[in-house]
């Protein structure tokens, strides 16, 4: 099947008719300013192409350029790709408390480094990534391209993330939506535990929707200092209450440490506990781009028209 990917560019072709009209009107105006004898004297001679031929070349160059921008494509059918992946969601805490420096250099930077190590040890798992505080937003849909995930996480900055609070419930709801095709949904939270004393509602939601919550808790019992909106110093401590959510949802709980193998234990646990039950079939279109054909023609016709312009004889 043949079609144009960017078919809206073809509407530009409607400009050709008024363009030809304007050129013709301009020519008639110029001819009206001089007598035929004077016009012949001042007109540049051209032995290559007539004016009409040159105009046709440039107009067709414009037409083919528009066809190239419209991206003509031949579709050769569909390709079925089979894969066996377990899907999971990773959520990184971007609330203001993650700016605390009780973990060097900060909870937020420590969180990112641990996530990088976690991704390195995953096998046959696709990961979707979200950031959360009082709201949850998607950073990346499901992918096995962990280098891209690392790039996105590396470039997360607090200078454009001005969010307060921690809403675990919203993360669970997003997890249920993104992993709706999974019988057993896997959610890993990198967080400092938020400020909730009771996670009963979250536990109930996780059980109802078969979400296993794994928690990597970042922070210390002594806490760290951050500044509130008024510039006052506020002490934020590790909240261990979120441990109940992990243990009551068939997940696991781990507190941060400087041991490089701690996050490896968590990734191995997930690798061993979840296996793809069946191959997933993904259908993609087999498409061949043809834009370079009209593009080459457009360039050739353009230069033919330009280099055929008459030159003043010295």
Question: SSE layout and pairings?
Answer:
Blueprint: E1 2-4, H1 16-33, H2 36-42, H3 51-69, E2 72-83, E3 86-93, H4 107-120, E4 125-132, E5 136-143, H5 146-154, H6 168-178, E6 185-191, H7 200-208, E7 211-217, E8 224-227, E9 233-236, H8 243-247, E10 252-255, H9 262-273, E11 280-289, H10 292-307
Shape label: elongated
Number of strands: 11
Rg calculated over all Cα atoms = 32 Å
**Proportion of strand residues:** 15-25%
Strand order of the largest sheet: 5-4-3-6-7-10
The helix count comes to 10
Helix content: 25-40%
Under the CATH scheme, which architecture of the largest domain would be assigned? 3-Layer(aba) Sandwich
CATH class of the largest domain: Alpha Beta
CATH topology of the largest domain: Rossmann fold
Instruction: Report the sheet with the most strands, covering strand number, pairing sense and barrel closure.
Output: 6 strands, mixed
Mean pLDDT score: 86
Spell the H/E element sequence.
EHHHEEHEEHHEHEEEHEHEH
Structural class: alpha/beta
How far apart lie the N and C ends?
56 Å
Low-confidence stretches: none
